[in-house]
Design a protein that fits this description.
Rossmann fold; 2 domains; four-stranded mixed beta sheet; three-stranded antiparallel beta sheet; elongated
């Protein structure tokens, strides 16, 4: 089985655990899984990537509000929200937020949602693993790492897993 990119990082630990347990059932005793994992790196590097100077990630994040306006009959004032991403040390993840720049009420059909100035909508997170933490996650699911590859900085890893 092949699980590309680092999508496992978008799952909370319980979901990542469930995914790996599902992989065990899927591949069986003779199979294996190749999984990409975004590894921990200096926080300033991660935060700079998610708060890129060109504003690409901010536009991606704000596009969620545009889609909600278009597809869910919402009335978000896009200019009243600002993108922000930061590393959460406790959970080993980068978090993306949209920050309300003022007190406001947003409607989604008949639902009114009140935002205070500074209140955020967490739109995404991406967990970053050390090889050891990923190995522990795999072990809990009944998998063992048979091979791993990383880039020269050890910022991204590809892990080949088999049943323990």
């Amino acid at each position: 089985m092949y699980f590309p990119g680092s999508t496992i990082g978008n799952l909370v630990p319980d979901e990542a655990d469930a995914l790996l347990r599902g992989i065990v059932d899927l591949v069986g005793p003779e199979g294996g899984a190749l999984i990409g994992v975004d590894l921990e790196k200096p926080h300033e590097v991660i935060e700079a990537a998610y708060n890129d100077a060109a504003g690409v990630t901010a536009e991606f994040n704000l596009n969620m509000l545009r889609r909600m306006n278009r597809e869910l009959n919402a009335d978000f004032d896009i200019a009243a929200f600002e993108h922000c991403a930061y590393f959460n040390d406790e959970h080993h993840r980068i978090e993306m937020h949209l920050v309300s720049q003022r007190a406001q009420v947003v409607r989604l059909d008949d639902l009114a949602v009140t935002f205070e100035a500074g209140e955020t909508i967490r739109t995404e997170y991406s967990h970053k693993y050390t090889p050891e933490r990923f190995e522990e996650l795999a072990r809990r699911a009944g998998l063992t790492i048979r091979q791993q590859w990383t880039d020269h900085r050890q910022w991204f890893g590809v892990f080949y897993l088999e049943l323990a």
